[in-house]
Amino acid sequence: MTAVQERPRTVLRAEVVPPDAPTPAARPPALWPRLLGSTLLLLAAVLVWVLAYALVFSGLSEARAQRGLYARLRSELATGNAPIAQPITPGAPVALLDVPAAGIKHVVVVEGTTSTQTADGPGHLRSSVLPGQTGASVILGRSTTYGAPFAHVARLRAGDALTVTTGQGRFRYRVVGQRRSGDPLALPAGTRAVLTLVTSDGTGVLGGFTPDSAVYVTAVLTGTPQTGSVAAGRPASAERPMQGDYSFASLAGLVLALQLLALVLGAVTWARLRWSPLLAHVLGLPLVLAALWFATQAAARLLPNLV
Hints:
The protein is α+β, with helices and mostly antiparallel strands. 34% of the residues lie in helices and 19% in strands.
């Protein structure tokens, strides 16, 4: 018989760990995923706020300005104090515009065409005559932001009617054509008074925010024009179509608004460390929104005056 060899046995020994022995430190989680997530969340919040301001909140601001301008213009028309000649204070109401085919009803036109002025409503180019007067009158309006009063101006076709009311009366115009930047302007023989509505136009889903050209809709007066005066000199760069307001006042306002926003955010952060987070959020959120509103409003002045 063959002897069966026994395999050596494995003996497990339990080691006693002293209670005061140091435990191995856990590896901290990687920092970059948290930073990336926070950055993406912040960018998404900023994008949502910008879109909300451009499409909703700016329209509320324009509607509020229009109510005040309409009340002022009605009073001036009733008392005969509406401006009919230069000089006219920039931002003052000068006319009431109605274009049924473009959905424009009782929209107040202000003096001036910078991005600051067109935020309150369509703006009259200061280097042109007022509507209803002999010569060429030009009105610029936004197509996307601040209520988009000229959103449907590009749809106007020859024969469409529009009406403008100023301190010199009510004037009726008839659209004769539409053109783009650089196209020639053809007017009927004997034309004495012309009104041109200018706005931006783009293609695609984001065409309103990325316009590729300005649209000029020209109309001729069907009645007798009035005499008037034109502001001396050519329009400044900020007053021309598709230009932003980069004046010292606009840039200084933006810097101050950003400083205010940074100060408010710093104060809320300090309050979170000193007080409870809930109390800091309840007291700080209205201040943050107000500062963010002012900063966005100041930044919007740098956008083109037709968008």
